[in-house]
Amino acid sequence: MGLGRMAFQISNNMRTVLVFLKFLGFFPGFVRERKRTEHRYIVLRLTAYALTLFGILLNLYFFKANVAMTFRYHKHFGFLHATTVSTIITGIKPFINAMLLFLMVLRLKSHIKMLRMMDNVDQIFKKSFGKSPPIRRYNKIFGGIVLFFVVLPLTYRIFESIWMDIHSRHKRTLSEWLTDVSFILVPLLTAWNMIPLFYYVFCNRVVCYWCKTLKKCIQKEHFKRQFSLKFYYEQFLRITALQKAIGSVFNPIVFFSLAWSLLMLSLTIYFITQPASRLAEPITVQQISSERARKELTERVYINLGWSAIQITVAIIHIIFICATGLKTNEETRKIINAVLAIVPDSNADLDRFQISCFVHKMSTQYMWGMTVWRAFPLERTTFFTLVSVMFTYSFLLLKLKDNPAVSPIIRQIIQINGTNVNGVL
C-alpha cells in the first residue's frame, strides 16, 4: 500500500486542486482508475462530464444575453458609449469561460498524462535525492489566491446591490436579497475565468522545484561525486519531457488567454482615445430629459465601468502571470546547463569532459526551450516587453490621430457613417 501511494504522491497531494477543477468542470477525468468498480466509475465520470457540459451551456446562455444587451445599448447610445463598451468588455467573459472549459476537456488525455508524468518524476527524485515538491504549501497558496479573486467581485457585487437599492425607487425585500443568484454566479464566473491561469502557474512551480533540485545536486558534485553525468542527463530529459507535456495541455489556453487579454486592452485604449467617447456625462439631456432617470442611468454606467475595470485588471494579470511563469521555468532550466558547465574546470571531472561536452551539445541542439506559446514564440522577457511596446505604440498612434486636426474630422465622419450603416442593419 505504501508503494502504491508513493507512485501517486503528487496527484494525491494535489487532490484539493483536482477536486476543485473537477467541480468547476475543468477536469472530468481520473488519474488512476484501478480501485473503482465499473458502476461507480461510470457514475462519477458521467457526473464530471455533466458538470462540464453545465458550465459550458450556462456560460453560453449568459454570453447570448450579453450580446443581445450590447446590441440594444448600441442601438440607443452608439458604439463608443461607455455603457456599450463596458458591456462588451464584461459580456465577453462567459464566452471566454466556455472556451476555457472546452479547451481543458479537449486536452483531457494530455492532462492525465501530465499528472502521471509528475508522479513518475516525483518518485524518482524522492528516491534519488530525497526531495519532493511542497505540494501542500502550493495548495494553500493556490487556494488563497483563488479566494481573493472570488471575494473581490463578490464584494463589488454586494456594493453594487446596496448602492442601487439606496438610490432606486423600488427597495428590495430581504427575501429578494436572499434569493439573488448573482451573489453565486458572479464569483463563479470569475473562478472559471481565473482558475486555468493559476493552475498553469501551479504546474510550473512544481517543475521549477525539480529544476532547482537537479541544479543543486549537480553543483554538489564539486565536493562529492555521487551520480554519473548520464544519470543527471536522464533526469534532465524527464524534466524537459514534463515541460513538453505541460505545454501540450496549456498551449491552447495560453494562446487564447493572451489573445482575449490583448483584445480587451486594445478595445479599452481605443475607447479612451476616441474624441466621440464621453465619460464625464455619458447620458445627455438630448437622450433622456428626465433628470432623475438620467441620474440613475449615469450611476449605472459608472457601476458598469467598475466591472470593466475589474475585467481589464484580470486581462493585465493574465499577460503578466503567463509571461512571468514561462520566464521563470525557462530560466531555471538554463541554470541546469550552467551547473553542468561549472563542472568542467573541476580537476575531478577530467575523465568526464567528453561526456559533459556531449551532454551540453544534446541539451543545446535537441531541446527547444520549455514554455512557449504553441512553439510560435518563447515566453521570455522579450515577449512581455514586446506586448507592452505594442500596446504603447497603439495608444500613441491613436492619441496622435485624435490630436491631429486634419485626421480627426475624417475619423468622426467614418464613425458616423459606420454608425448609420449599423443602425440601418439593426
UniProtKB/TrEMBL annotation:
InterPro entries assigned: 7TM_chemorcpt
Segments passing through the bilayer: 43-63, 83-108, 141-159, 181-202, 253-272, 305-327, 382-399
Membrane-topology descriptor: Multi-pass membrane protein
Subcellular location: Membrane
GO biological process, one term: sensory perception of taste
Keyword set, alphabetical order: Membrane, Receptor, Transmembrane, Transmembrane helix
Cellular component per GO, a single term: axon
Keyword RNA-binding listed: no
Name of the protein: Gustatory receptor
